[in-house]
Amino acid sequence: MKKIKDKISSKGLKGPSLTIKWAFASSFFIFVVFTIFAVITYKSSVNLIVAKERKNIGQTISSVASRLANSDSELTVLNTYRSLTNNDPEENSQYDRTSIVEGNLMKIDPFISELGQDALSLYVYNLEEKLVFKTHDDDLALFQTTRKDPTIITVNGITGFLSIQPIYSKTTTEKIGYAQTFYELSSFYEIRSKLLLTLIVLEVISLILSSILGFFLSAYFLKPLKVLRDTMDTVRKNPESDAHMPEINTNDELTDLAEIFNEMLDRMRTYIEQQKQFVEDVSHELRTPVAIMEGHLSLLQRWGKDDPEVLEESLAASVQELSRMKSLVQEMLDLSRAEQVDIQYTHETTHAKEVTYQVYNNFKMLYPEFTFTLDDDLSDEVTLSIYRNHFEQIIIIILDNAVKYSTDRKEVHISISTQGKDFELAIQDFGEGVSEEDLDKIFNRFYRVDKARARTKGGNGLGLSIAKQLLASYKGRIAAESVIGQGTIFRIFIPIHQEK
Fold first, then answer.
1. Gap between the Cα atoms of 257 and 251, Å rounded
2. By the 8 A CB rule, do 214 and 23 touch?
3. Exposed e or buried b for every residue in 206-235, given b needs 16+ CB within 10 A?
4. Which residues lie below 8 Å from residue 338, measured CB to CB, with a gap of 6+?
5. CA neighbours within 13 Å on the CB side: how many for 39?
């Protein structure tokens, strides 16, 4: 026991392993089932044997009473003997002069052979309740003069079936005596004891075998869980470890568990990398405006404050950097809120056409130098499973990028339609385009294809990240296609609200 505890302690377990628990539980279950089966088998067998013996005794006493009823006078040794053997006086006159019939009874007929078995004792009494016939040496007084069905009682320390039957003559219908049988149950109790012992031995053997089998089966089936535990422990001790669950080919829930765990590990490591990148990018993004402002303030502190031109330039630059920092902080807050959409806006809905047309008209007014076109393939209004403000924010982010990165051809095409159970919004510009290498990264935080150019346009590289996070929170998605020098098209898919 101490070795087991030490082994458990060395593995970091707080108690017995799942293998031992499973083996114990399966063994206990099999033990309980087998115990119930053994009890039912034992009870059924005992009751069946008892019922059979009771029936046999009942039939025997009935046969005895039927033969004795052939006599037309009170029962005596001679007429009892003749009735039981079904012989007439002439054929058995040689036996009429004796009162000891034991030894001859076994040679008469099968019925008499049955009466001669050791366990069965037959006693016949006359009307004065005096014993006139018996099949064994020991005597037994008549218990009662009324009928008694086979009943288990103990006589002289021996347990057996006792049955009593008053005898009535078939000829005169008068009572002519009594028949009493006693059937010892010693052999029955011996059989019962052997049956009980056999069931106990089988139960012990089944318990041992089930424990061994349960242990090996649980060890086999729980092996993937042990590997999972070890992998998790490795990751816990070293979060930067590249440990993964090995492939499991059981094609069951354990396989799904391993795949989900590996997916979670990959996602966690992605988040860790993104967090590192996020901290680095934020530090870099904030360091630049802080450094600029610090430089201008130092310049003013030294001598620039006395020069109106330098003072105005420094203040303008500082205000611009403060504005950019404010925009960056606001976008970071928007991104943080986008990650909590599933908590606050689970049941929100909005109208697709109404919001799209509103934003479309606003951009036409804000950017009159651009040509905005809207292709509407929706015959009726469509209700989307998304908060209205978030839907507006997504469209504004994409349209804002389309305007910012347009070149000579100042056109933006918008189209709305349905694709199965999703609403599709496509926004196409004819600007700079994005290379295939950068296309997979444009949704990352703070990522900008041309950082210098993006800085002049006021971008922080968070807009597309916010849009993607919002869509993911509402079980939507966004995809981009682009060709360098020809433009980019963004496709947004949002689930259509289903009435329940």
1. 11
2. yes
3. bbeebbeebbeebbeebebeeebbebeeeb
4. 390, 466, 469, 470, 473
5. 5
Q: Residue 432 has what pLDDT?
A: 84
Distance of alpha carbon 317 from alpha carbon 310, whole angstroms = 10
CA-based nearest residue to 494, from 394, 424, 416, 417: 424
Cβ pair 80, 71 in contact under 8 A: yes
Contact (Cβ atoms closer than 8 angstroms) between residue 206 and residue 193:
no
Instruction: Give the C-alpha separation, 80 to 500, whole Å.
Output: 92
Joined tokens for residue 362: 């606003």
The amino acid at residue 111 is F
In degrees, rounded to 5, the angle at the alpha carbon of residue 414 between the alpha carbons of residues 366 and 454 is 60
For 447, the 3-state DSSP assignment is: coil
391 contacts 416 by C-beta, under 8 angstroms: no
Tokens standing for 76?
A: 């005596």
Taking the alpha carbons at both ends of the chain, their separation in whole angstroms is 58
Least confident of 56-65, 317-326, 329-338, 353-362: 329-338
Domains of the chain and CATH, by start: 40-192 (3.30.450), 240-338 (1.10.287.130), 344-495 (3.30.565.10)
Q: What 3-state DSSP class applies to 231?
A: helix
Helices (H), 98-165: 110-115
Task: Give the pLDDT confidence of 367-399 residue by residue, as tens digits.
Answer: 899 999 999 999 899 999 988 888 888 898 899
Residue with the larger pLDDT of the pair 20 and 123: 123
Any idea what DSSP says for residue 245? P
Distance from C-alpha of 236 to C-alpha of 484, rounded to nearest angstrom: 45
pLDDT at 98: 39
Task: Show the CA angle centred on residue 323, arms to residues 317 and 327, nearest 5°.
Answer: 145
3-state secondary structure of 429: strand
Taking the C-alpha atoms of residue 79 and residue 99, their distance in angstroms, rounded to an integer, is 11
CB 296 within 8 A of CB 289: no
User: Whose structure tokens read 């968070």?
Assistant: 462
CA 405 from centroid of its chain's CA atoms: 54
* 10: helix, strand or coil: helix
Site of tokens 């294809």: 449
The pLDDT tens digits for 406-433 are 888 899 999 999 998 999 999 999 988 8
Output the pTM of the full model. 0.44
258 with 244: CB under 8 angstroms?
A: no
Within a 10 A sphere around the Cβ of 295, how many other Cβ atoms?
13
